[in-house]
Each structure stands twice: as structure tokens, then as C-alpha cells.
Amino acid sequence: MDMGGMDHGGAPPAAASKKVIMHMSLYWGKDVWILFADWPGTSLGQYILSLIIVFLGAVIVEWLAFLKTNQKPGLNPIPTGFFQAVVYGFRVFFAYCVMLAVMSFNLGVVIVAVVGHGVGYWLFGTQAFKKKSVEPTLKD
Question: Of 16, 28, 34, 126, which alpha carbon lies 20 to 30 A from 45's?
């Protein structure tokens, strides 16, 4: 049965002219698709920009993981709980975007994602940059 010239098989016409290689193992190179078709493009500058974006995304995931959203006494628990849920939603969004970027199997993307998570944990999860509280001491 003829469907009026509609082709239901294969790729869309725009993608038919491009050769898409789906890597099933880690590879190195600037020709990669991260999250969207044609992103980051084919130039080295666009690839480096995409690596910076993935790195920052991983740092943001760690920042949101250690963001203090604890309830303070006297505050209404409903708005505070809503704020905590919104922060958690943003954290999950960024975590999934970084995970999908890593699924491109590009070694550069994998490396910057791991380093970004490590730097984010170092900045926000360790005591390296926390303000130390000074306990007053009594002199005799």
C-alpha cells in the first residue's frame, strides 16, 4: 500500500547525508556528538568549549550535592522542603546531562567529567575551603 510518498524507514533526509558513527568503546578525537546532533561541531575550539561546559556541569553537580539547604528552627517547612526539592531536581538534571555526555565514549569528555566531579568535591565537599570557626578561649 502506497502511503503517498512517505518514507517510514531509515533516517530523516537531513541526517541521511551525514555519516554518524556510534562508538561502542572509548575513543579520542574532536569529532564527537555530545547530547545533541552537531554539538559541539567539528572545530577544535568548539570541542574545547564543550569540554569546559561538561567540566562546569560536573562541578555544579557536586556544588548542588553539598549545598546546605537545612531547615532552620522557626521556618515554615513547606517552602523550605519545596526549595530542597527544586535544588535536588536541578542536581539530577545536571547529573543526567553529564552522564549522557560521558556516554559519547569520548575520552576527553570522560576525563573532564571525572576531573570536574573531583574538583567539585574538593571545593565543596572537603574541609579545604571551609571557614574554620574560631572558638573563644578564656584566659586565666
Answer: 16
- DSSP characters over the chain: ---TT---SS--HHHHTSPP---SS-B--S----SSTT-S-SSHHHHHHHHHHHHHHHHHHHHHHH---PPPTTS-HHHHHHHHHHHHHHHHHHHHHHHHHHTT-BHHHHHHHHHHHHHHHHHHTSSTTPPPPPPP----
Q: Distance between CA atoms of 56 and 112, rounded to whole angstroms?
A: 9
CB 40: neighbour CB atoms within 10 A?
A: 23
**pTM for this model (two decimals):** 0.74
Instruction: Please compute Rg for the chain using Cα positions.
Output: 23
